[in-house]
Amino acid sequence: MAGLDGVEQPRQRGGATAERWRPLADDTRVVRALESFGNPADGEVELPSLPESAAIARRLTQHVLLRQWALSPGIAEDVILLVSELVGNAVQHTGARAFGLRLLRRPGRIRVEVRDPSRGLPCLLPVRDLDTSGRGLTLVDKLSTRWGVDLLPRGKTTWFEMRVSDR
Hints:
Blueprint: E1 12-13, E2 16-17, H1 27-37, E3 45-48, H2 53-68, H3 73-93, E4 98-106, E5 109-116, H4 136-143, E6 146-152, E7 155-163
Antiparallel strand pairs: 1-2, 3-4, 4-5, 5-7, 6-7
């Protein structure tokens, strides 16, 4: 049965949790995204700089976090939100045709990287209650363990890390 977040919840049988994963209806989109762009946990995937790429990045990230790495839905929800923010910034502010997405797992943490060809640095701006934009990096700053920008010879990588418990 799917929970409120759309994630398939384990079924109980006779007091034991069933381990078999049952795909959600939306998983066909995940399969298509993996086939079209690749798995960002296996290496950087290139996505077109279009607004709809945020949804693709969220699907790919959700698949890796929940299915491949079996992280908690709470951590996954925060990471997916922050991926959306970084992708939105890459699409809206860089003028690039494409950007890269990569997910890395290390003991006790995960790292998400969004690479684009612009050397313009993102700015953490103060936001007021009635502001309708400019909250993306504020969310990244508040929810991530740490974040930053690495300048490259051609562009930059904006990244964030989250602490996770190893099982």
